[in-house]
Structure formats: C-alpha cells, structure tokens
Amino acid sequence: MIISFNRPTVTGNELRYIQEALDKFHVSGDGIFSKRCSTWLEKTVGVPRALLTHSCTAALEMAALLCDLSPGDEVIMPSFTFVSTANAVALRGAVPVFVDIRRDSLNIDENLIEAAITPRTKAIFVVHYAGVACEMDAVMEIARRHDLFVVEDAAQALRASYRGRPLGGIGDFSTISFHETKNFISGEGGALLVNDPAYVGRAEILREKGTNRSSFLRGEVDKYTWVDLGSSFLPSDIIAAFLWAQFENADSLQVRRRAIWERYHDGFQSLERDGLVRRPIIPDGCDHNAHLYYLLLPNSEARNRLIASLRDREIYAPFHYVPLHSAPAGLKFARTHGTLAVTEDVAGRLLRMPLWHAMTNEPAQVIEAVHSLIR
Ligand SMILES: *Cc1c(COP(=O)(O)O)cnc(C)c1O
User: Fold this and answer.
1) What's the whole-number mean pLDDT along residues 88-109?
2) Best probe residue, ligand 1, of 52, 54, 57 (max atoms within 8 Å of C-beta)
3) How many angstroms separate the alpha carbon of residue 368 from the centre of ligand 1?
4) How far is residue 341's CA from residue 176's CA, in Å, rounded to a whole number?
5) Residue to substitute in 82, 105, 193 for testing ligand 1 pocket (most ligand atoms within 8 angstroms of CB)
6) Residues 5-20, buried b or exposed e (16+ Cβ, 10 A)?
7) Domains of the chain in sequence order
8) 160-186: burial string, b at 16+ Cβ within 10 Å, e else
9) Range with the lowest mean pLDDT among 81-95, 118-132, 211-225?
10) How remote is the CA of residue 179 from the centroid of ligand 1, in Å?
11) Are 129 and 103 in contact (CB under 8 A)?
12) Which of 70, 252, 286, 357 has its CA 20 to 30 A from that of 2?
C-alpha cells in the first residue's frame, strides 16, 4: 500500500454545500458561504475582520500592499519559509531581509530581529512553522518600539495559539492558507485577517479590484467606483461552500490530527533517546495545531538516505524548504543579515512524515519503517 505524504481532507458535506450555493443563484464572491466562513474565522481567531482570498499567497500580497511597501523598503523575515512570504514583498520592489531561525521551534529568532533593522525597515513578517508560534511578545515589543508592521504568515497555524492567544490574531495582519496540504482546505484558498480596524476599509477595497463595492453592498454608498489600487483577490462562493464543510467539522478534524501527531511523537521517542533523531520541540506557552510532523536526522546524507529507502517502501516522506536566501530569486531580490547557519543546517536534515486526517494504521507502518531503516 502506497502511503502518500498528504491526502485532501473531505468531511462529507462539501458537495451538498456547493449544490446549495448553486441553488441560491450566487456563485461569485461574498455569498452566504463566504460570510459564514469569514464570521467563523473572526470568532475563532478573535479579529475584527477576516476576508477570504483565493490563496494565502494572495493574502500575503494584500498584506504587503496594506503595509504600503515601496521600492527599497525592507522587511525582516526568516529564510526558512515558503516562497510566497518573500515574493509578496519583492513584488512591491521591497527587499526581504533574512535572519536566522531558532534551533527549537525552527521559527524566526526574535533575538536577531533588532540588529537587522535599518531606516528602510517597514515590517516584520513572521512564519509560524508547523503551527508552532513564534515568540510573539518579543516580536510585537520590537515592532512597537520601532514603529514597524507585523504580518503573521499563519498559513499553517489556524487553531494554534501563543500564551492563550490564537495565532493570526496578534500581528497587524495575518494570512491563512486552505491549500490542500493544510489542516482545513478548499483545494486552493486563503484568508487575510485584519487586526487593526483602521485598515479594514482599505483591505476590502484592495480585494474588490480597487473599488468600494463592499461599502456599496452594505448600502453605505449608492454606487461603486474605482477608488484605490486593487486586484481581484476574492474566491468564488463555491470555494467557500467547500470550506464551510471543513470549518463546521474543525473540532473533530483537529482531534484526529492531534492523535496522529501524538502517535508519531510517542513512536519516535526511543529513537530520540538513542540520539538517532530529534523530534519537534514545542516551546512553553505554544499550543500547536498538529499541522505537520517532522524529524531531524543527524546530517543530510542520513536524511536523504532515509527519504530514498522510505520511497522504496512506497512511503512518501519529503524534505521541506530550500532556504530562500540560497534560491536563485532569493539571491536576486533579497539579502541576509548575519549568518543563516541554523537555517542551512536544519533545512538539510529535516524530513516530514505523512500526515492527513483520515489516517488509520499508516502512522504505525511509517514508525515501524523508520525504526527498521535507521536502527
Ligand atoms: C502554504 C503556505 C503558503 C502559501 O499558501 P497558498 O495558499 O498555497 O498560497 C505561504 N506560506 C506558508 C508558510 C505556507 O506554509
């Protein structure tokens, strides 16, 4: 039996809700399912406004626009992240400035941020890797002191929290992904969460092609027109209908994922004790969402060998990010501050385990295979 890395989550009501959207004769953006989903997000994360987008990438681009990034501005972020975090900044002509990550959580090292600040720095984009929180108290304190925006790339972090506060609700803006590999999916999809009410109006306009259509639909203006920059960032209500079927089952999906995560964590305990792997470390105060389970092997040769031998057994366990500072576009559009030794070290040794909500005995098979291959 092939054990794939991911399988899209389906709860059973997706097609019914899509049919309902069709029956209501509203399949463009901001229909009833979009409203249900954004209200759910506002309540779940505790933010004044959630706007569905067609991807987290789109939400990151909106966040970059809301930060008013202009050519030459700088944004401090980790290099150990998905390309979209940096691309959104580079698309505005601004420069991603990469700093290193922490050895425990693999998140941006908050102690390295302040030294990377220059007069051109406009924002800090943090990434909650694997749904484990960055050290947000320190990040917010630095940002307030230097008058910088904070954007949480919470693509992986919905339903995780930091010192009791939901991730995605701490920075000025945050971005969520509903890509099929995430905990809650709509194939492709995302959301921008706006934490500062002062930016809600502009965010709505950016998302609606630079028009005040959202105000018009609420009856606040009697016609709508082009008022600012913008693009079409909103998804069809068909996508939102699919997503609603996931949100409605959020608690049970999370319980399932967490059980699988814990199964892996127990299963690899003895390998860690014997110094053969390192398991994820969850810092105090972080309640994670079991988005992904990874192991760190002693070196990249051991990691690559394990990937290949698992593949021979039809178990697909991939590595993760190629650090952005070493990628061709990273060399062209970004710069680094200080050494990125931890980023480079970790990226070469990390291996992600198959994880999807409907797994049954697959985790046991994966654990058994890893034990027999590296003992
Ligand atoms: C998945 C992911 C994205 C991109 O999400 P899309 O919805 O595919 O655009 C961005 N950042 C991080 C950290 C991610 O994990």
Assistant:
1) 98
2) 57
3) 31
4) 28
5) 82
6) ebbebebebbeebbeb
7) 14-248 (3.40.640.10), 250-374 (3.90.1150.10)
8) bbbeebbbbbbbbbbbbbbbebbbbbb
9) 211-225
10) 7
11) no
12) 252
Return the H-helix or E-strand segment holding 149: strand 149-153
Between CA 365 and CA 312 the distance in angstroms is 14
Q: What percent of the chain has pLDDT over 70?
A: 100
CA 51 – CA 204 distance, rounded (Å)? 8
Rounded Cα–Cα distance for residues 327 and 332 (Å): 9
Residues linked to residue 125 through DSSP beta bridges, in sequence order? 151
pLDDT tens track for 204-233 = 999 999 999 999 989 999 999 999 999 999
- Which candidate, 286, 323, 300, 288, places its Cα nearest to that of 78? 323
**Count of CA atoms in the C-beta half-sphere (13 A) of 255:** 4
Pocket of ligand 1 (CB under 6 A): 55-57, 81-82, 84-85, 127, 153, 155-156, 177, 179, 190
Task: Name the one residue in this structure whose structure tokens are 């698992």.
Answer: 310
Residue nearest to atom 5 of ligand 1 (CA): 56
Q: In the numeric block, which tokens belong to residue 88?
A: 């959104």
Q: What are phi and psi of 78, to 5 degrees?
A: -80, 155
Per-residue pLDDT reduced to its tens digit, 284-299: 999 999 999 999 999 9
3-class secondary-structure state, position 52: strand
Of how many residues is the chain composed?
Answer: 375
Res 326: pLDDT: 97
Ligand 1 pocket test, pick from 5, 84, 129, 186 with the greatest ligand atom count within 8 Å of Cβ, gives 84
Query: Distance (Å, rounded) from C-alpha 51 to C-alpha 47?
Result: 11
What global pTM score does this model have? 0.97
